[in-house]
Design a protein that fits this description.
Length: 265
Amino acid sequence: MSDTMSRRPKRQNAEQRKSGTGATSAKRKPPQRKRSNAVQVKPPPPSTSRGKATRSRLKSALAKLLESHSYHAIRLEDITSKADVRVSLFYHYFQSKTDITHEVLTDLLKRFRDEVATRSRDNDPLTAIHHANQRMVALYRANPGAMRCLLEVDQADAPFVQMWRELTLEWNQRIAANIRRQAPHAFRTDTEYLSLAYALAGMVDSFLYEYFVVGNPALLQAHPEEEDVARFLTVLWYRMLYLNNPSDTFLKGLAGFKAISRIGR
């Protein structure tokens, strides 16, 4: 009996189990160290040409992925794979997926601001409106995925919506100032002019989102070319603002607006 008992494994007492000093404690893996600085500190810009090229490839890869995937569906592995960069190198260039996306969208909006700024201030109202709509159409056409990312409305899932709101405010303030210069006594306050600008620009934003981001087949069929879209929106804007149609030369295939005008007379 004593031989049998001597061959049985010894049981851990309560104190051993509590302190983890029994035989099984040797099999436990040490706790893994958490990455301490991967997403806490933004890396400085690279100083070498190779580093700059790698950083640029990562941004280009994300921009391409946004055209076919939602922001929340994109993983770091997707970005690095498309850029042909090791995942471990990502944090040498960016703080996080939010960080790189913020840079891509900032670059996009800066290019848009620069393009809009090229317009001559001496243009007549119709030309100015059409130029603005052409730039907006080009922005949506070339970047539907980025625009979807910017225009997400759920605050919990929309880390970049503030960027779009800032641009929208800046854009609408420009519109309001132009309208006030043309009709200085139309409204009493700046906020009234600004509200008109928001209404006009909001119409354009909603239409372009439906056309380029959603891909509404009815709109695509009605206005198959980029210039068709810009001209259509310009006529709407002009009619809403001046209560009149633009010239027949500008209307071209949109002469149906003339028939609509006769209804209210």
